[in-house]
Design a protein that fits this description.
- The protein is mainly alpha-helical.
- It has one domain.
- It has 7 helices and no strands.
- α1 crosses α6 and α4 crosses α7.
- The longest helix is centred in the N-terminal third of the chain and has 28 residues.
- The structure holds zinc ion.
- Zinc ion (ZN) binds next to loops.
Length: 165
């Protein structure tokens, strides 16, 4: 019974995380996540520079497509997957267009797994940004990619990922 309760709690946790990721991606694709540009529009306190690289102004497109930190994370993760897709910052595409292009590099049966992977990476990049802004905690891109790999292992154990063999 304890194992079933633990399994049930794990599945409930994963579903909640997936819902948060979906909502975040919806906001990000529309350019509405609470990055520096959108905080400025609302007159809320913010640092205009990207919390991940401190080089460029922070907006959704920079944070998830152009930021050198995010691109380093994708580079490290791509190295572990035996599928070649362009890193987002290498192309002049929106987040949604890059996502659609990258998923074409996977066999059709793995497209949905890539969608989930894409949302997970964006979500954890966003959480890293928030940890820096609100908690002054910093992970290197190497550490974040290692954390993502661990997260993927959990999701894989739950039967969600199958393409990273
Ligand atoms: Zn940046």
């Amino acid at each position: 019974m304890a194992l079933i309760r633990t399994l049930k709690r794990t599945i409930q946790f994963l579903i909640k995380e997936l819902l948060k990721e979906c909502f975040f991606i919806w906001l990000a694709v529309k350019g509405r996540c609470l990055t520096g540009d959108n905080l400025a529009k609302r007159g809320w306190p913010h640092d205009p520079l990207c919390a991940l690289c401190s080089i460029d102004m922070e907006d959704c497109h920079h944070l998830l497509v152009k930021c050198p930190y995010t691109n380093r994370v994708w580079y490290l993760l791509r190295d572990r997957i035996n599928v070649h897709f362009d890193i987002p910052g290498r192309l002049d595409l929106s987040l949604a267009d890059w996502w659609q292009l990258a998923r074409t590099r996977f066999q059709t049966r793995y497209s949905k797994a890539f969608d989930t992977f894409f949302m997970l990476v964006c979500w954890l990049v966003w959480k890293e940004r928030n940890a820096r802004v609100f908690d002054q905690k910093f992970n290197t891109a190497d550490l974040l990619s290692a954390d993502i790999k661990e997260e993927v292992a959990v999701w894989r154990a739950a039967g969600i990922f199958q393409f990273c063999e």
